[in-house]
Amino acid sequence: CPEIAVHVLIGLNGETVRGIERDTGARVDVNDSRNPCTVQITGRRECVDRACAAVDEIIQGSAREVTGGAGEEVIECPEIAVHVLIGLNGETVRGIERDTGARVDVNDSRNPCTVQITGRRECVDRACAAVDEIIQGSAREVTGGAGEEVIECPEIAVH
């Protein structure tokens, strides 16, 4: 299963996979820790055949969406907000992915770090809003939220 299709196949909070299982009677396990992901379908032969057809249809539909409704955004994240965005053991980022259906990749090897968000346009938009909210919340916490504003100033202007 191509990476772009993983979130569509799983669905928001696993709804799509559960729907396939309910409709076909087969068990569908998606392993998205590999690229490309793997999909294991088990059950009676006729159930497996129906589930395979449903999964294939979703994957093919995702491939069509890549040329149309897919989106990608890159957001800069200040170093101070990276740990809040990632969360303990990656929980916050995984929660954003689960809640929005978009893929969120944080590159914290740069300052500012970059957050690449990919998926269907509406999923990307929701994930961007969630990431922005976390970044803004981190900035408010750092400044105390008391009407303070932090402005970055080029070093040349300080002297």
Automatic annotation (TrEMBL):
The keyword Signal does not apply. The keyword Repeat applies. It comes from the Eukaryota. Keywords: Repeat, RNA-binding. SUPFAM superfamilies: Eukaryotic type KH-domain (KH-domain type I). It holds the Pfam family KH_1. CDD domains: KH-I. This is K Homology domain-containing protein.
